[in-house]
Amino acid sequence: MVAIKSKVKAGERGWEMEKEEVIYGRHPVLELLRSERPVNKIYLAQGVRQRDRQELLRLAAERNVPVQEVKREWLTRLIGTPDHQGMAALPAPFPYVEVEDLLAVAAERGEPPFLLMLAGVEDPRRRARRAAAATDLRLS
Question: Could you count the other beta carbons within 10 Å of the beta carbon of residue 96?
Answer without folding.
Answer: 6
